[in-house]
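Pasting as-is:
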Amino acid sequence: SVENARQNLETEAYHWDFNRYVEEAQAAWDAQLSSVEAEGTEKDKQKFYTCLYHAFLDPRIYTDCNGEFLAPDGSVQKTDQFLCRTVFSGWDVYRSEFPLLTIIQPEAVNDMICSLIQSAEHSGEPFPRWEIFGRETGCMVGDPGTIITADAYCKGIRNYDTQKAWEICRDTAYARYPNRSGRDEMSKYGYIPGNISETAENAFADWCISQFAKASGHLEDAEKLYQQSLNYRNIFDPETGWMRRKDADGNWMETSGIYDQRGCVESNIFQQSWFVPHDIPKLIELMGGPDSFCERLEKLLSGADLSALWNEDYNHSNEPCHTVVHLFNYAGRPWRTQYWVRRVQNEAYHEGPFGYCGNEDVGQMSAWFVLTALGFHSTTAASGRFDLNTPYFRKQTVKLNPKYHSCAVSDTLTIETDCDPSENWYIHSVTLNGKEIDRPYLTYEELTAGGTLRYCLGKEPCMEWGIK
């Protein structure tokens, strides 16, 4: 309303000194960006803090200063329990952006889940996939709202109506919402005819909801949803060794090979076939075991121009590939994850106005860099697992939030290396608060307990570390 606009102006623009606003904006961003203190060259810090800045831009605050906001049905709602947020590019940001925010800005994650809940309540529809100003745009596929909600709940971020959140996730998974994309077909066939990407995305969402169910004590639902999550196997063709479209009669549909884009969303078969983040050991088995699996991964990555705006092989400029590089950690070759993460960081990101290899996608592209710069990345939401890679800087300090994190050791997490990581790409050993870590991952609970995470590095691969 005009009155709310006037109140916002008086609250947020309370003086008319331009230079003072410059100083206040600078101070506000300094405070925000200091959530991570990185020590390195100016060039590297420029790249890192540009990404961190972008990661903080959205989801932006949609609430007026008096606590009011517009719901999807046009009604005016008011609360002092959370800040309603908007611009949820769900299909993009559940992969890196929200896992990052659970560590450096969990309050914003909690706000977004509250916002998604009120959106569902006032629209009569499931969580939106791509929301802007309270409305669903219908863009992309899958069920990212349930993924970030399940991920947050499993990490102990629960300052919202958890029962309502569970009911929305459950009803989405069981196709009780009439507008749930692809759910009727998934229920009927166990896959979506003619569609690879949507089948895979819905299967993963079902797995995440199963973890929500397990953590919240709904064990019967947890088992049923877990079984639903295995439906991706229905579109794996053992003859070609890749995912493939099926028709409604269960027949394999025509394919022109691994670069065929039919049935894939902003991707092709070569890129989309890796997307089974909840059942990676089985995917490795389906692809012929660790050696064959890694050989295929190497082909995907080595065939790409990592600085290009688009690739038919590994395509960092778009989200379907953003969990691929860490898959070596699951196949007994973590040193290849370390190698390829550093290649992507160096070649797909640069300082300056053309620093991204593709669309920045509302913080997702940036968040991938920030997380991997810290020395880890989330492959599987709702699992609590963060896969390790070599940090980008000699030392970084992350401020934790005692309201959402245990901070059992410290209210900061310090990440350091024993030598220059720009020249030493490979992990030789890792310790967390003095304890040896011989696996290629840490848990959310371990990271958010705080303390010191130390990497010992070398110029040559260490093929003994992290293979468990």
